Amino acid sequence: MDTEDHKALREAVSALGKRHGPGSDPTQLWSDAGKLGYLGVNLPEEHGGGGGGISELSIVLEELGAAGCPLLMLVVSPAICGTVIARFGTEQQKQQWLPGLADGTRRMAFGITEPDAGSNSHRITTTARKDGTDWLLTGRKVFVSGVDIADATLIVGRTEDARTGRLKPSLFIVPRDTPGFTRRPIDMELNAAEKQFELVLDDVRLPADALVGDEDAGLLQLFAGLNPERIMTAAFAIGMGRHALAKAIGYARDRTVWNTPIGAHQAIAHPLAQAHIELELARLMMQKAAALYDAGDDMGAGEAANMAKYAAGEACVKAVDQAVHTLGGNGLTREYGLARLITAARVARIAPVSREMILNYVSHQILGLPKSY
């Protein structure tokens, strides 16, 4: 349930979203949301943020999505990168990055996925090796959102553990114009404001202070960013589903055939009601995940965040599909703006982790069933 503060935040962000609406300039919306304090609502007050958590930031993204103008970089810049730096960064890193991430004047992308690793983070081949006090990064990343508009990218590499010799994940801030750091846009069928990129790191030299957090913390720091990513993806999906559903409900009320609004027929009304129920259930799990994360329960948040992302992705796809079906041919026209959501809704099923990998996680980690791989 929303607190009074959450209700007020939801109403304020909804009003901003409705002023901009579908097809608006995302750069201007980002700037306006930053000036109003919405982009950094989860970041520490002493570094220019709102002092809240992922609970508040997920409300921002959900309501912008419900207004038809979601900002995908909210998932990446303040939720993943901002959270990781706030929790594990040095004081210098916090001062350098957090105020800009909070007010929207700076953005940061996040690079983890690799061409040959997929969902298996243990197969990441981007490596960082010491060269004096510097680091040298070499590797490739794919499906990195918004690199062209980001001031830097938080790269997941692997470093050698001095105690065991094994490679472990580490996080590095790579400024956009660093020599050896190149990007190539990926040609996507998905029509989104944020572009996708392949990155190549060819002996990218970074100073010692580019490393975020403890060199030996490994997975702890990585999952501090991945759990908010899943929660925010759920918010993205729920907002999109609500937007589609609202269009379908309005159409079903107004569209009259044989002197009766089509929404009076149970064949139209019941699927829309089911879609609403499933979106609301997904939101409850998202709120649970966010509350656990904000309370510092990383293990509990991991379970809930994965389930929230799964539930929201499924609910979003069903809501969009039913909305398009409700409008019939009009559901595929540019005028109503639903057809573009058919592809976009699938993103929540695929990224940042597929629904099948979430089912693997639940079956192994929660139900205690044996692994198949």
Question: What does this 3D model show about the protein?
Answer:
With 373 residues, the chain is α+β, with helices and mostly antiparallel strands. Helices cover 50% and strands 16% of the residues. Helix 4 packs antiparallel against helix 5, helix 6 (219-254) runs parallel beside helix 8 and helix 8 packs antiparallel against helix 9. The radius of gyration is 21 Å and the shape is globular.
* Helix residue percentage: 40-55%
Summed up, the helix count is 10
Integer average pLDDT: 94
Describe the largest sheet: 4 strands, mixed
Rg, Cα atoms, Å: 21 Å
Percentage of residues in DSSP E strands = 15-25%
Q: What order do the SSEs take from the amino end to the carboxyl end, as H and E?
A: HHHHHEEEEEEEEHEEHHHH
Q: Label the structural class.
A: alpha+beta
Residue stretches low in confidence (pLDDT < 50, at least 5 long) are none
Major β-sheet strand ordering: 1-4-5-8
Strands, count:
10
Shape call: globular
What gap, in angstroms, lies between the N and C termini? 39 Å
